[in-house]
Amino acid sequence: MTEPTRKPRPGLGRGLSSLLGDNVPEAPINGPAEGGGAGGLRMLPVSALTPHPDQPRRHFDESALEDLALSIQSRGLIQPIVVRPMGHNYQIVAGERRWRAAQRARLHEVPVIVRDLDDAETMEIALVENIQRQDLNAIEEAEAYQRLIGEFGHTQEALGKLVHKSRSHISNLMRLLDLPAPVREMLVVGAIEMGHARALIGAPDVERLARQVADKDLSVRETEKLARAAKPASKRKGDAAIRDADIMALEHQLGDVLGLNVRIAHGAKGGALTLTYSTLDQLDMICQRLTGERI
User: Fold this and answer.
1) Among candidate residues 196, 217, 237, the one where a domain is terminated
2) pLDDT tens figures, 77-124
């Protein structure tokens, strides 16, 4: 029995307007609905819209929502909300933040564009919309990439084209998901920054180290030293007391290019270059680069 053919992803590598199928109007909409069919601009009751349970954004800044609600009260809702049919109502594909603000502004109806989209297309549009119009936090963005790869079969290369980010950017973000949940939450709320989180990946007792970084307001370089010092002596055996700054810089440079954790152990008689991968997709990328195949 042959497996069902996966629906092609025609939107990959294109902008948000291309994913939606046409240009989304940017002018305030206060008049009657334009077009009654699927894809046309129409007005729908706020109560007819429901948020997507798996949309990338998890955190909504309260003050930003209030500002947007005030703007909507005075100028109307400038950007339509993209929805898809879901039962007797409509599920929000892009624009949940605007929908929440419209509720605060006590609007009864909002302008929408209806699209017939499957789950993968919905995730693609939600991800691009959030990245292009208001940055997701690093964990939300990483979780969205992970789902598009794990559930919908996208590659890191394809996602990079979709969101106009480098492959190393996507790989580095996804490595953050290896951190314990409490440390990821510290990154979300701003107790630690991206550089701190990356330095702590793979360190023992990460939660304790992360709290120490936050309490002492350590720099990224100090966090790197803290993480190295926390490793068992057996793992640090052979390391120089103070590692050469050029070697460390080269590790960071290669890590950014490859999107992997790179370790260089250099000594008088040579050394070793270690690349650490966490997914088969990353291993495939390493093999293709080493063999000279097209990535």
Assistant:
1) 237
2) 878 888 999 888 999 988 888 898 899 999 899 999 998 888 888 877
Active site residues: 96
pTM more than 0.85: no
Half-sphere exposure of 219 (CA within 13 A, CB side): 2
Q: How many CB atoms lie within 10 A of CB 160?
A: 21
In a domain, 168, yes or no: no
99 and 33: one domain?
yes
Do the domain assignments include residue 99? Answer: yes
Residue 7, helix vs strand vs coil: coil
DSSP line for 219-286: -HHHHHHHHHHHS-HHHHTT--SS--HHHHHHHHHHHHHHTSEEEEEEETTEEEEEEE--SHHHHHHH
What's the rounded Cα separation, in Å, for the pair 186 and 176? 12
- Asked whether residue 32 is domain-assigned, the answer is yes
- Cβ(99)–Cβ(49) below 8 Å: yes
31 and 121 co-located in one domain: yes
Domain assignment of residue 64, yes or no = yes
- CB–CB of 285/294 below 8 Å? no
179-192 confidence digits (pLDDT tens): 999 999 999 889 99
Q: Final residue of a domain: which of 111, 136, 161?
A: 136
CA 59, 60, 61, 62: dihedral to nearest 10 degrees?
A: -130
- Look at strands 261-267 and 270-276 and give their pairing: antiparallel
Which tokens in the block code for residue 250? 């080269």
Residue 288 to residue 283: CA distance in whole angstroms: 9
What range does the domain containing 225 cover? 180-237
